[in-house]
Amino acid sequence: MSPAPPPPTNADYLLMTDPVTTPPETLNWVTFGGGQAFVGGNDGQFKHEQGTNSSAAGGIQDFHWQTFVGKDGVFKMDGHGVFGNHDYDLKLDLTDEKLGYIRAGFTEFRTWYDPTGGFYPVNGLDFQPTNNDLYIDRRDAYIELGLTLPDWPVLSVRYDYDSREGTMDSTSWGQTTLTPNGSTTKIVPTFLGIDETRNIFSANIKDTFGSTDAALGMRYERDDTNDSTFINQNPTETSNAFITQQDIEKNDLFNAHGSTMTVFDQKVTLTTGFSASTVESDLGGSRIYGPAYNASFSPTFANNGSGYLNLGGGGNSKDYEGNLNLMLTPIDHLVIVPAVRFDYETSNLNDGFSNTSSSGAITPETANTDNWNMDVAQSVEARYTGFRDWSLYNSVEVSENWGNEAWDSAPVLTGGTLNQDWSMFGLKYTAGANWYPLPQLNFGLQYYYQIHNYDFTNNLNASPSSYPGYLSKQNFTTNDANIRATWQALSNVSLITRYDFQLSTVDTWSIPSGGTDIGSVQSSKLINHILGEDITWTPLPCLYLQAGGSYVLNTMGTPADNSGGTSNLILSGQNNYWTVDASLGYEITAKTHLQMQYSYYNAADYFNSAPTSLPYGANTQENSFTATVTHDISKEVKVSVKYGFYRNRDETSGGQNNYNAQVLYVSTQFGF
């Protein structure tokens, strides 16, 4: 089981973010800022974790300007542009309350990725990536027009252009046999080429008819994808091959949707909604082995593998959804919300390609899928606040789902043929209470129970030997209980304590190739304990302290855990970690402010199972500390200086992801 990533970095820790974010006491303002990061160690991991470049960056950190236009109009312009960090944003808004609005904008930002691959500890084997600077640039440009005339329906039309472009790492690593025993191990870094665009047109209309608010809308979307995967297989070996996989997909999506809300009286409100979507898809691509990336296919290449050429095909899907909700207040303090939801979806896909083999032989191949499913769910929610110092709530949701999954391919992939009916019964029950025994003390308690029970029927004459064809039944069960306490212990001290327990199990019935059901097996058991604490202390009017932490115990087991003959190949999954966060704010003078923040993350679940298998789990420690001093020169001018220190240690990667980094950032805000 892969370890969970650490909690997201607090926005205040982002290296190239100006700590001066409070608008001055003026209508307009501009903030200039700049800084430099100094990194020792894995530069790519630093940029990926902290979401910023490791070189100098600066520019306009924040900008706002507005002016009145005519009698009722206002024009606003907001944005920022940080060079070196590749972070740009501009928003324009011209609004007239009695007429309508025109809005336009452009956003572009960069996300960095770490190209480091795996690490084999027995002989210290790792492979350095050929490209150390991986990033994706995301762009969005839009224009929207709205009409808001009095006593007219509200109309709006909008166009968006979105794109993703660049390179990023992949978790599907390439293989090597340079281990001491010659076993195949996948630790060679792999990267992806991303080239995706979306064109989106949408229109909406809203109006009121008596006591009913109604809305209708449509959306057309054109998606174009031309992505690539680049795998270096068995580098430096005689069996070395460079694999280039190209994935081409074009989708045309059309959606129509609507909603209503009718207020009959103070005790009855009805809401409805519907959505209908169609998607038409076209596919293309190839997977080629060669002496270099982007090589042409050669049947005589010595290290050819199982690839394909001339992929072509497509298909369509349709989705219809509807829901109805009724909010009732039959007596004072009691609210009941019954609801029903319906969803029906169909999809089919057909493709053809030329399947290649290690000998260079080419075999024509076809494949097709044809699936459908229908889901009906009913729910009832209730909340009662009539008891002194108590608020009670509960809900029940029952869902039923039916469908069929069928796919086939020939001649090479016939072993994967599937035609399977399935049904699902789902239930989720939630009960909770909020208790306020004292003005300075309250508790929140909640419990929920959830099941998803699946039944599968194989429509083929033979018993499939691959997943999911051999399943006959599978039950998923979750029990979750949590409690929260908020206590104002003293006039200047408050505490929040949280505890959450979760137990999830998966029971499976299957029919192997012999055709006999082997009965129930608990195929997975997941246990979570999460404990958190936050403390806020204000010892002086000019000083506050906050501290918090969490401890997570996460264990997942399977029947193969520590079973005989596996030689530690399969163990229970451990994903335990703990975090600490602290902050301090001090008003040095009426115009000078100090803020300090500290964050720590620790996971110690690394298990070195080599040479039996590739080691797994995490042994990571992350530290971050920032200190910011802000000084108000005047009501219109503020300056700040920020220092940050960041440290990462990762045993799982053999130290490849280790780094120390220091950051200095200075900014000035002018109001006008």
Helix content: under 10%
Q: What does the main sheet amount to? A: 26 strands, antiparallel, barrel
> Taking all residues together, what is the mean pLDDT?
91
- Please indicate the percent range of residues in DSSP E strands (runs of 2 or more): over 45%
Distance between the termini: 55 Å
Structural class computed from helices and strand pairing: mainly beta
Given as residue ranges, the uncertain stretches (5+ residues, pLDDT < 50) are 1-16
Order of helices and strands: EHEEEEEEEEEEEEEEEEEEEEEEEEEE
Q: How many beta-strand segments? A: 27
* Cα Rg: 29 Å
Count of helical regions: 1
Overall spatial form = globular
In terms of topology, how is this protein built?
Elements: E1 29-41, H1 43-50, E2 57-69, E3 73-83, E4 87-96, E5 100-113, E6 134-147, E7 154-176, E8 185-209, E9 212-233, E10 241-265, E11 268-290, E12 308-328, E13 334-356, E14 362-384, E15 390-410, E16 418-438, E17 441-458, E18 471-490, E19 493-510, E20 520-540, E21 543-557, E22 573-574, E23 577-587, E24 592-604, E25 619-632, E26 637-650, E27 659-671
Antiparallel strand pairs: 1-2, 1-27, 2-3, 3-4, 4-5, 5-6, 6-7, 7-8, 8-9, 9-10, 10-11, 11-12, 12-13, 13-14, 14-15, 15-16, 16-17, 17-18, 18-19, 19-20, 20-21, 21-22, 21-23, 23-24, 24-25, 25-26, 26-27
Question: Describe it for me?
Answer:
The protein has one helix spanning 43-50, and strands at residues 29-41, 57-69, 73-83, 87-96, 100-113, 134-147, 154-176, 185-209, 212-233, 241-265, 268-290, 308-328, 334-356, 362-384, 390-410, 418-438, 441-458, 471-490, 493-510, 520-540, 543-557, 573-574, 577-587, 592-604, 619-632, 637-650, 659-671. The model is unreliable at 1-16 (pLDDT under 50). It has a 26-stranded antiparallel beta barrel. The protein is mainly beta. The chain has one helix and 27 strands. The protein is globular and about 75 Å long. 1% of the residues lie in helices and 69% in strands.
